[in-house]
Amino acid sequence: MLRPVIQVRRAIPTARWILVRRLATAAGHDPSKLRNMALVAHIDSGKTTLTESILLQSNYLSSAGTVDTGSTTTDFLPAERERGITIQSASIPVKWKNWTFNLIDTPGHADFGMEVESASRVVDGAVVLIDSVEGVEAQTKGVWRQLDRYGVRSRIMFLNKLDRAGASFGSSLSSLLTNRLHPKPMALALPIASFDPQDYTHGEPGVQGLVDLVNWEIWKWNEEGQSSRHKLPQNEEDFKALDFIPTTHPILPHLIPARTALLENLSMFSEDLMETLLNLSSGPSAYATVPASQIMPHLRAATLRNEILPVLCGSAFKHIGTELVMNYVGELLPSPLDVIEKVPVPNAPLRMLAWKVGWDKRKGWMTFVRIYSGTLTKQSTILNSTRNQREKASKLLLLYASQAEEVDTLPFGSVGVVLGLKYTRTGDTLVSLNRGSDNSTLQDIILPPAVISASVIPQSHSDLAPVQDALQALARTDPSVRVETHEGQLLVHGMGSLHLEIVESRLKDEWNVDFEFGKRRVSYREGLGSGDTTLEDPTWTTEIAGKRVQVAVTFNIRSLEDGERGDPLWDGNVVLDQHGTPLRSPETYNDQTDPMSNVTNGISNTLSNSPNTFLPLSRLQVQVAGYELPPDVPVSVLAGASAVILRQAIRQAGMGPLMEPYIRMKINVHEDVLGKIVKDLTEHSGEVLDLATDSTSASGEEEALEPHSEDGVYVPPKWLSPSSNLSSGSNSTSSKFKRSVQAVAPLSQMLDYSNRLRALSGGHGTFEMVNAGFREVSSARKIEILREIGRGA
Ligand SMILES: Nc1nc2c(ncn2[C@@H]2O[C@H](COP(=O)(O)OP(=O)(O)OP(=O)(O)O)[C@@H](O)[C@H]2O)c(=O)[nH]1
Predict the structure, then answer these.
(1) Where is the region Disordered (predicted)?
(2) Which of 25-39, 53-67, 445-459, 542-556 comes out lowest in average pLDDT?
(3) What is the DSSP letter of 609?
(4) Which residue, among 249, 189, 195, 248, has the nearest Cα to 214 in the 3D structure?
(5) How far is the CA of 39 from the centre of ligand 1 (A)?
(6) Could you tell me the pTM of the whole model?
(7) Treating both helix axes as pointing N-terminal to C-terminal, what angle do 292-304 and 271-278 enclose, rounded to 10 degrees?
(8) Is the separation of the CB atoms in 135 and 161 below 8 Å?
(9) Is the dihedral of CA 694, 697, 701, 703 positive or negative?
(10) Is the dihedral of CA 150, 156, 157, 161 positive or negative?
(11) What is the pLDDT of residues 531-564, one digit of tens each?
(12) What's the 44 CA to ligand 1 centre distance in angstroms?
């Protein structure tokens, strides 16, 4: 008789306490065992819940908090706990087996995309979650693109919430293919909905166990979330003697075919594995005999090369699948040594990137860093090579969400916090002062575009200075908040309505300043006009020390085509030198002695403020073809000259098309108000893309009953997630009347949508929105916008 090999967890004690352990100090630091990884996903997919479950399994917590009671470790801001959403990324070191994970829980709401951007910049791998009722959603694709942007190639997909009614493993897997997220998702685990013979295929929604196809084991979870693990036999004949699963369970005949599909698909990427499979003895059970130790290296290699997407599943809420996720993060995701593009050199001089800046009343500025080479020692003086400023690293911390542990060093590969840095901003590179160290800057973090602004009205004149200081401090911790004074008015720009709402409440709660936000306005952009941009006389004359000086700068300017930059949401500009090499923006590089730095400064001034509309220009490529500067004239003159000459060229081209931000919306309502919702959307310039019944949204298609292969990807049978039967079965009553409306609309028309939806749906409707990029407006709308911004006739 086969016995469980391991009883994993003890009963959960009631008190919730934290075991702080020293994890990443230099002694015993082995970078090959480090996994710098992020949890990323569409909003509400369960990232924070999975983080909490990971902390519980790794003995960091003795009981898990929940998002719903506002008691999780990583969502510690009051605004996060009140709303049950993640607003800022929180990093936490986790010890699991002989690995250390630096785990970053990121927000899912698109308004806080900056946090995903900076986390993606510093991690080497990611676990991407999907709610398996919904399948791939708009922001799943958004975070996928963000990971792409920073070359985070190795990912594991976790199909979460399999306990929910309507959840479907097969449809979620198919949705990875239909949404072109990855051509080769490979299921490493299959769900077992129930072990109860009465309940296999049409029981309560749920998941009670998982089959680990690689380790050839079955995991079972009881009601308390305790797991047990059972080895599967190598011979199918022995399935008849199993005592941990009913021998009539319909999943058993599918196990060897599922493992066979996995190994055969994987062998397409490994000649060695193919050789192993070819040498297997014949017979139905042959693929069950391949030990995990012969599979794992090939899985790891294919994951590191992004040839396959390993797929796991479970229910973070019930802790089902968490240990498997942790095992596979350790086994498959890269260590800092594996990511050669990021120059991992343990013994080289110090080089690190500041990926986030936080503020704490007691600790002051907290700079989150990732060490790319060498070791950072406390009390050392270092150079911020982005800003050419010396900085003193007075204290070093490992941060366990809001709890800190002081350490003496941060070794190669690690992620930690530095106190005492005065000038450093998100995206800056810091290096050692040693001669010979590499001062070049690391790849910067890209700021997402601001799409909305609000005027800030201090309560009284004496509140103005504190409000300005608080805004500057907040903008330092969240670079996607931009502050400007325009025509005497203080304006704050953000990534969406919720972002501005959070900015408002954080300023009041954390900085205690007195102000009101005025009317919100969306941000517009101007494209390049259709006229000629070649100036007959590209010169600028000025006076220096009483002498007339003539400076020439020539530009080649053109409009970028839709999608030319890959990311459809991108709305920036490209500035190139005469060889076609991109020039760095003045925010990240500003050296007044460098002629090209002055030229980019001038270009940036003009691009942020079109001479035609005073709106920012967008989707332009500006190439600096050359410049002429008389001898003995300071190079700083080039900044003014470039700004004026470029402005003339843009004015000569004439006013270009105007663009405004669009959003993609998903609105969930009862069927009886569907007509009103659609009418309202149409009246507000929205375009309805899809009207689905809520429970079929995972892929929008009927699921196949039998296991099948889609483009060489094994998709298991439908009944594996019996809860999905409920959605199409006769006992589905409430979900039948729920509808989900997908639409795109101009953001300007949706600023008060929560109030409108409440009125239209009698309080029942819910909605979410993600950025859909800037779109060109019609000529009628152009006239409206020009009037709104005071440029109309
Ligand atoms: N049924 C079920 N609910 C879950 C599961 N995981 C998370 N939830 C619930 O889903 C909601 C969102 O969970 P979170 O963990 O906050 O999701 P998130 O992805 O971190 O959310 P954001 O960071 O705000 O995007 C909460 O109500 C959770 O209790 C699961 O496995 N099953």
Answers:
(1) 693-716
(2) 53-67
(3) S
(4) 189
(5) 12
(6) 0.82
(7) 150
(8) no
(9) negative
(10) negative
(11) 999 999 999 999 888 889 999 999 999 999 877 7
(12) 5
Q: What per-residue confidence (pLDDT) applies to 566? A: 67
Alpha-carbon distance 371 to 122, whole Å? 9
Q: Tokens 């006992």 — which residue?
A: 731
Instruction: Please give the C-alpha separations between residue 192 and each of 17, 157, 166, 206, 397, in angstroms, as whole numbers.
Output: 32, 18, 15, 9, 42
77, 11 Cβ separation under 8 angstroms? no
**What atom of ligand 1 comes closest to residue 107's alpha carbon?**
23
Q: Rounded CA gap, 84 and 94, in Å?
A: 23
- pLDDT tens for each residue of 36-52: 999 999 989 999 999 99
User: 364-373 and 415-419: which strand pairing?
Assistant: antiparallel
181 vs 17: CA distance, rounded Å: 39
Q: Which of 43, 67, 133, 498 to mutate to test the pocket of ligand 1 (most atoms within 8 A of CB)?
A: 67
Give the residue whose CA is nearest to atom 4 of ligand 1. 317
CB 510 within 8 A of CB 450: no
Q: Which residues line ligand 1 (CB under 6 A)?
A: 41, 43-49, 66-68, 85-86, 107-109, 160-161, 163-164, 315-317
- What mean pLDDT do residues 462-488 have? 89
- What's the confidence (pLDDT) of residue 345? 60
When mean pLDDT is compared across 168-177, 588-597, 631-640, the lowest value belongs to 588-597
Ligand 1 atom with the smallest distance to the CA of 108 is 25
Nearest to 144 by CA among 451, 568, 562: 568
Q: Are 207 and 193 in contact (CB under 8 A)?
A: yes
Nearest CA owner, ligand 1 atom 7: 46
User: Which residues pair with residue 222 across a beta bridge?
Assistant: none
Render pLDDT for 503-534 as a digit per residue (tens, 0 to 9): 998 899 888 899 999 988 899 999 999 999 99
Pairing of strands 515-522, 687-693: unpaired
